[in-house]
Design brief:
The structure holds two protein chains of two kinds. In chain A, 28% of the residues lie in helices and 17% in strands. Chain A has eight helices and twelve strands. Chain A has a seven-stranded mixed β-sheet with strand order 1-9-8-5-4-2-3. Chain B is of the alpha/beta class. Chain B has ten helices and ten strands. A six-stranded mixed β-sheet of chain B has the order 6-7-8-3-9-10, sandwiched between helices. A four-stranded antiparallel β-sheet of chain B has the order 2-1-4-5, with helices on one face. In chain B, strand 7, helix 7 and strand 8 form a beta-alpha-beta unit. In chain B, helix 4 runs parallel beside helix 6. Classes of the chains: A alpha/beta, B alpha/beta. Chains A and B meet through helix 5 of A and helix 2, helix 4 and helix 5 of B.
Chain lengths: 297, 261
């Protein structure tokens, strides 16, 4: 139940171009990516294509991955930290069929990791690329719906508005209640939406050795955080940025350093907290524990 | 007030603005001194709103220039500044109170955040200080401090206008543009808002450009009044003098059109 399709079980479809998109489209997207890397945190418009999956399922991320994927790359796809949820399984199969690339669930072995909602717990290394699926690239959109205006505000670095949102949180809840998609300042210049990752993952964005690429298919925007770039989470002096904490460790692997999901175990209020990063959790448990999970579930 | 200063605060020179073939502004020139309140009156379509937007840096004139006394730099044409400078000026040294509060407020953001947004834009990052500042300003404009966390969508028209004033004055600007601040309010609320404006302008030594079609508002607030017709200034002078002894036929018509209660 935890394992996905073993690599190579799917045949590469010879009737589609490598990684589905045509070469000119991939080149166009790579140009946008290069520009994005040059201006960390800046949203670059690109000609987003219609993909064979609905908006909101990762059309932006999948186009970025398709554009940078090489035949010898090893791909990992996660959704909410897990390798075996519907979104992750389908995007992984998509690239197995269209590109015939090797896939893995092992974070350390992957060259490209496409992700939705999480950054892996295992620290990334140089040479790896993390591709985020982004539903709403504009961090100020909720408070300022005019795109002409938000672009101008980015251009002039007028970011007072971002603190209005944080002020509202403290005024209404007594603390900054934003827990995911927590706005960050990239390279001390552009305010950026880190996509809906929990704010627990925000510190991992900072000075990461890996290249981080963000694709928003519906909104037609690409942005990037190059390796070793400063990424700070916005906050007030007297209400500093904090990440979530849990009272106990993971029920399966005992980790106290990872992001935990609450899982209901029965209809009588039984619950447990387990790592959301399935690869991290299994590797910590060792092979023998895997049978216990499937028996005891 | 502040009559000792040697340069005017705001200076309009031969402003001209066309909308296609329609002349909205023609040959408008005047000077505004620190602490002075200038009313611009005229009927609908006389160009007074166009003039206000041109002065406030929102609408570039076809000809002429708008000069503002920048600290340490003297009189500068605001349309020669880069856009970033102009926007910073507009949210620090200037205020703009819209006729409809909906245009000037974030309607779904709490009153407190509305008031201190400009301070956050200027880089204030201490929540406690911002909160105290917001409470202070709510009291200055006679709003109940207990409403600090309510959004202006649930405020009355008069309260919204007060909130808009607080939001603009929080940076202690030297110049405020008021676009028909009291129209659309009932008369008792109007009277209290005018009292408030009179008190604040005096306490803070604000220079004000006030656009109104209500001559009574001009008489109550303004030191000086300009009368506009078809894009031109037809008469200007001390408010009392101008209203008591109008010279231009159009001003005479305006003054005589006011209905006595």
């Amino acid at each position: 139940m935890r394992m996905c399709d073993p690599p190579g079980s799917l045949e590469r479809d010879p009737n589609v171009n490598f990684a589905y998109l045509d070469e000119r489209t991939k080149r166009m997207i790579r140009r946008a990516l290069l520009k994005a890397v040059c201006i960390p945190g800046h949203q670059v418009a690109f000609g987003s294509r219609e993909m064979p999956l609905p908006y909101g399922w990762g059309t932006g991320g999948i186009q970025v991955t398709a554009s940078i994927l090489g035949p010898r790359d090893v791909l990992k796809v996660i959704d909410q930290g897990s390798d075996d949820t519907v979104n992750a399984v389908n995007i992984r199969r998509f690239f197995q069929r269209t590109a015939g690339v090797a896939v893995t669930t092992d974070t350390t072995r992957a060259d490209i990791i496409q992700t939705r909602h999480r950054i892996p717990e295992t620290p990334l290394r140089e040479g790896q690329i993390l591709v985020f699926q982004v539903p709403a690239p504009e961090p100020m959109q909720r408070l300022e719906p005019r795109q002409s205006e938000t672009r101008k505000m980015h251009g002039l670095a007028e970011y007072g508005l971002m603190h209005v949102k944080l002020y509202e949180d403290i005024a209404h809840y007594g603390h900054i209640a934003t827990t995911y998609d927590y706005p960050v300042l990239v390279n001390n210049r552009y305010v950026m939406s880190p996509s809906p990752i929990p704010k627990f993952d925000n510190p991992k964005l900072n000075m990461s050795p890996a290249l981080q690429l963000f694709g928003a298919g519906r909104e037609k925007r690409i942005y990037a955080v190059p390796p070793y770039t400063a990424v700070t989470s916005l906050a007030f002096d007297d209400h500093p940025f904090e990440v979530q904490r849990w009272e106990s460790g993971c029920a399966l692997c005992g980790s106290r350093a990872s992001f935990l999901d609450e899982v209901l175990t029965d209809d009588h209020g039984g619950r447990m907290f387990v790592c959301s990063d399935s690869d991290y959790c299994t590797s910590r448990q060792g092979a023998d524990v895997r049978s216990v999970i499937s028996d005891g579930g | 007030m502040a009559a000792d200063s040697a340069t005017p605060l705001l200076c309009a020179r031969a402003l001209r603005r066309l909308y296609g073939r329609i002349v909205a502004l023609e040959e408008v020139s005047f000077e505004l001194w620190p602490g002075e309140i200038l009313a611009i009156v005229g009927e609908s379509g006389s160009g007074k709103s166009t003039l206000l937007h041109v002065l406030a840096g929102q609408l570039e004139p076809d000809e002429g220039e708008v000069l503002f006394d920048l600290p340490g730099r003297g009189l500068q044409d605001i349309y020669r500044l880069c856009e970033g400078e102009r926007r910073t000026l507009a949210r620090t040294d200037w205020g703009f109170v819209h006729q409809h509060a909906v245009d000037g407020l974030r309607m779904h953001v709490s009153a407190g955040a509305n008031v201190v947004e400009r301070q956050m834009a200027l880089g204030e990052r201490h929540y406690g200080r911002l909160r105290r500042l917001a409470l202070d300003w709510l009291q200055h404009v006679e709003l109940d401090p207990a409403r600090i966390d309510d959004a202006p969508v649930i405020f009355s028209g008069g309260m919204r206008q007060r909130l808009q004033i607080a939001r603009n004055l929080v940076t202690l600007p030297r110049l405020v543009f008021l676009d028909e601040p009291t129209s659309g309010l009932d008369v008792s609320v109007q009277a209290r808002l005018l009292d408030l404006l009179r008190r604040l302008t005096r306490e803070l030594g604000l220079a004000v450009v006030l656009v109104t079609h209500d001559l009574a508002v001009a008489r109550l607030l303004a030191h000086r009044t300009m009368v506009m017709q078809l894009g031109r200034v037809v008469e200007s002078g001390l408010t009392d003098q101008l209203l008591d002894d109008p010279v231009h036929p159009y001003t005479q018509l305006l003054v005589s059109s006011v209905l006595p209660p």
